[in-house]
Design a protein that fits this description.
The protein is an alpha/beta fold and about 170 residues long. It has helices spanning about 10-20, 35-45, 60-65, 85-90, 105-110, 115-120, 130-140, and strands spanning about 1-5, 25-35, 50, 70-75, 95-100, 125. It has a single domain, classed as Rossmann fold.
Length: about 170
């Protein structure tokens, strides 16, 4: 069994990833987060391991990712963050994916490409809905336009409703 660790694994997006992976034969899911009162019951409900970790603490983070085949980082936001988590994963011998949708964060991950390749590991950022769907949409619509100057995208997870009220 290969260990797949999901940082933020019981959050809005992380819980969907963890649940989906728990159904994959050969994957042992490790749910990681700060709150054992929320994370442990969720992990148990899907047959996963729970580990408490603070991603701002190197020792805690190392304990969370140690032994992982792949780490999926869903504990954003990623805006203004560095690549310490991805670097720790590479140091521990784990492949790394994250759900970042911050343009600067996503495009900057390339700085780790050479180190990842030397170790035979994969590192990627922006494997979330907004970057993936936006890229697919642009790719399919691009031939229909002379140029695309601006795109506005909005993502809303299932189960959350936004209601706008217009006051007179």
């Amino acid at each position: 069994m290969k260990i797949v660790t999901v940082l933020g694994g019981y959050g809005v997006f992380g819980s969907r990833i963890s649940s989906g992976l728990a159904a994959v034969k050969g994957a042992a899911v490790r749910v990681v987060g700060r709150d054992p009162k929320a994370g442990m019951p969720f992990a148990e409900s899907i047959g996963a391991e729970f580990r408490r970790a603070d991603l701002n603490n190197d020792e805690s983070l190392r304990g969370a990712v140690a032994g992982s085949h792949v780490v999926i980082h869903s504990a954003g936001p990623f805006q203004g963050k560095d690549y310490r988590v991805a670097e720790m994963c590479l140091d521990c011998g784990s492949h790394y994916l994250d759900l970042a949708d911050s343009r600067d964060f996503v495009t900057g991950i390339g700085a780790l490409d050479e180190a990842a390749r030397r170790k035979g590991l994969f590192v990627s950022s922006g494997v979330s809905s907004v970057p993936a769907i936006t890229h697919a949409m642009i790719s399919s619509l691009k031939p229909e336009f002379q140029s695309i100057d601006e795109i506005h995208a909005h993502l809303q997870p299932l189960g959350i409703r936004c209601v706008t009220t217009h006051l007179p």
